[in-house]
Write a structure and sequence with these properties.
Residues 44-120 form the O-methyltransferase dimerisation domain. The termini are far apart. The protein has 17 helices and 10 strands. It has helices at 2-14, 17-34, 37-59, 62-67, 74-81, 85-97, 113-117, 121-147, 160-165, 171-177, 179-191, 202-209, 233-241, 255-258, 297-307, 331-344, 351-360; strands spanning 102-103, 109-110, 224-226, 249-253, 267-271, 285-289, 316-324, 349-350, 363-372, 377-384. It folds into 3 domains: 35-118, Arc Repressor Mutant, subunit A, CATH 1.10.10.10; 125-190, no CATH class; 193-326 and 345-384, Vaccinia Virus protein VP39 (Rossmann fold). By secondary structure, it is α/β, with parallel strands linked by helices. The strands form 2 sheets. Strands 3, 4, 5, 6, 7, 8, 9 and 10 form an 8-stranded mixed β-sheet that branches. A two-stranded antiparallel sheet has the order 1-2. The radius of gyration is 23 Å and the shape is globular.
Length: 388
Amino acid sequence: MELAAAQIRTLAQTADKAGRQEILSTLNKLQSEIEDPMEMLMRLSNFNILIAMFRVAVHVQLFQALDKSESLDIDEIAKATGVTSELLTRILRYLASMNVIKENPNGRYTANNITRFFTNSRVQGQVLHGFETNIPVARELFDFLATTNYREITDNKHTPFQKAYNTNLHPFEWFAQNKKRFEHFHEGMAAMASAAWIDVVEVFQKAAEQIPHATPKADEVPFFVDVGGGYGHQSVLVGRLYPNLLHRIVFQDLPQTLDQVSVIEGIEAQAHDFFTPQPIKGAKFYYLRRVMHDWPDADALSILQHLTPSLSTDSRILIDEIVMPDQSAHWHSTMIDLSMMMAFAGKERCAQQWKDLAARSGLRVEGIHTYDAASYASVIVMVSTRQL
């Protein structure tokens, strides 16, 4: 058994992310083949305990305490966290059994790679968002579907979210009135910020490299417009990779979102509702990251239709989203798909669904470039049909 584990460990050390995901998928399938079905029931029962313990650990800063020292005993951790030794013993025993922390033979505990990952404030924001906002929504799903005769959810003001929070507001309207929850939401989004998409979008790379390192002219159109860009995390990453694009990058979001954002040197923040006409005409690239999956088809279509008239003949829309495979999808993407449905009446879309949305908006899909094979994260490049 140890030999087999060592061989798998060696494979994982030399594999890329997609390769590691394939190894994990294979191991998960093997587990389901050899485990007693009762084990599956026990794992199902464990999910609520696991996230509850993560919520406690985040609040008492357990992960930070372990990360600051080589190892700590129960009394030392109790002093650092304010949790009694008796309770802490049970919590640590559980987290160690889940491999979230490491339990040593001498009764001391140390941080492992998972512990260290969860010291990140943005990652902790995702934990808080999941525990405080998403769990109540999931709890309402069954009753909601029963009352709608098990129909697909397509109205974003009639979802389990509204039932969970006794509101008629769209989730984003509700977030605007619940600042702390909105902060957790954006911290979670920031935790997943990445510029990896640029590596596979050659048309963006070539265009960006041609922009001079010089102050743009007064009448120069922005190069990169980050539509629905939240706190500007993606725009910042683009500016770091291509400093020549600074003062040519604009990120847009609603005023209540931008009110939470500090000034970012070289990057303009612009208030804009993407359900209204795009005010910047003829930019080289309009980028939407994890925007479209928040919306049902009718609204997704409206977003594109309000953007399309602003395109020039060499403009492109870059949609950074999951592109679902037609079969054998990984649970990460199927989980996100159902999460979007429960809260927003949104969805993750397959390639044909993206092409259909484009065609109905006066656009065509020029290419789909996958930059993370494990999660199906891709950039769908759309151009105006006026270019044909």
